[in-house]
């Protein structure tokens, strides 16, 4: 059990350990520390992560590094147009010796799942992940099977302008707490990468930075980060402003924004959420839920007054 009040000492200690984790990951993925911090914040918030970027910028490498740094089981599924839901979830197969059907788990039964190029699969296969991401379980032939804890989905998505892609529906996009883009490294970081050790060799040599139990404890601490009434007013004003010209952000999006802001505040070693925390995670949390994308999210954050 943990105390019902987060202390400054706990917050500062957690912030230091989280920064150690980010620093280790930054040695493998060069020049992307802010994006790495957001990715760890997503896991800290118990959410799922969507990367939308061009191939070859390190999305798969970051996913593997994050799992390895926490000592978590990792699996990768390459999504293609002929992939079936059973290829991900598993299937019940008849056993002639026992005369009964036996469930054979699919690759979704892991702690960190990389759904690579998720929008190259058909909508039917994409939707196979909905229950797993929302409920932490898989239902097959009327029987529910619990997924491991933690269960963290990192999906990559190709730009919709590329051939052979199926746009993710809004219901699927809403299951991802954040959408991020790594982008190419700056010139200095790219030079270090070109001159240095192969990043995959570095990954093989990388050991666990912290046990999962420690990060799980920090997930509990993040839920204890205090949220004041004025901060809730600010959050609701953002939600209301997004709905002024259309459907806008859902209540689920509001909960996601609050959870991410709490995680970011803990990253900064604070015991309460500030408007700066909401602004730091806002584009990543709101962008894929708004028709105008990250640009509309940035406009909302600029227009709504800070308490």
Description:
With 307 residues, this protein is of the alpha/beta class. It contains 14 helices and nine strands. It has two domains: 19-209, Rossmann fold (3-Layer(aba) Sandwich); 225-307, Helicase, Ruva Protein, domain 3, CATH 1.10.8. The strands form three sheets. Strands 2-5-8-1-9 form a five-stranded parallel β-sheet. Strands 3-4 form a two-stranded antiparallel sheet. The longest helix is centred in the first third of the chain and has 21 residues, at 8-28. The mean pLDDT is 90.
Q: Give the second-level CATH assignment, the architecture of the largest domain.
A: 3-Layer(aba) Sandwich
Low-confidence stretches: none
Counting DSSP H or I runs of 4 or more residues, the number of helices is 14
Note the gap between the termini: 34 Å
Average pLDDT figure = 90
Helix proportion range: 40-55%
Secondary-structure element series: HHEHEHEEEHHEEEHEHHHHHHH
């Amino acid at each position: 059990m943990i105390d019902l009040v987060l202390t400054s000492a706990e917050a500062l200690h957690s912030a230091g350990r989280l920064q150690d984790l980010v620093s280790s990951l930054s040695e493998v993925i060069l020049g992307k520390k802010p994006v790495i911090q957001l990715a760890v914040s997503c896991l800290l918030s118990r959410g799922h992560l969507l990367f939308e970027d061009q191939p070859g910028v390190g999305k798969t490498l970051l996913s593997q590094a994050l799992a390895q740094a926490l000592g978590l089981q990792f699996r990768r599924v390459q999504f293609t147009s002929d992939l079936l839901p059973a290829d991900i979830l598993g299937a019940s197969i008849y056993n002639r010796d026992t005369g009964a059907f036996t469930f054979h788990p699919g690759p979704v039964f892991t702690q960190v799942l990389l759904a690579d190029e998720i929008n190259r699969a058909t909508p039917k296969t994409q939707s196979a992940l909905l229950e797993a991401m929302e409920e932490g379980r898989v239902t097959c032939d009327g029987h529910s099977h619990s997924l491991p804890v933690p269960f963290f989905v990192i999906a990559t998505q190709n730009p919709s302008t590329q051939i052979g892609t199926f746009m993710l529906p809004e219901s699927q996009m809403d299951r991802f707490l954040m959408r991020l883009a790594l982008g190419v490294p700056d010139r200095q970081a790219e030079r270090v990468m070109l001159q240095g050790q192969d990043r995959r060799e570095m990954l093989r040599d990388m050991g666990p930075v912290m046990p999962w139990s420690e990060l799980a404890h920090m997930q509990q601490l993040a839920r204890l980060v205090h949220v004041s009434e004025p901060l809730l007013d600010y959050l609701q004003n953002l939600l209301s402003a997004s709905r002024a010209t259309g459907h806008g952000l859902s209540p689920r999006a509001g909960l996601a924004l609050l959870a991410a802001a709490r995680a970011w505040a803990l990253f900064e070693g604070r015991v309460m959420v500030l408007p700066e925390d909401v602004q730091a995670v806002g584009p990543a949390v709101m962008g894929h839920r708004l028709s105008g994308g990250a640009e509309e999210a940035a406009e909302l954050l600029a227009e709504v007054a800070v308490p």
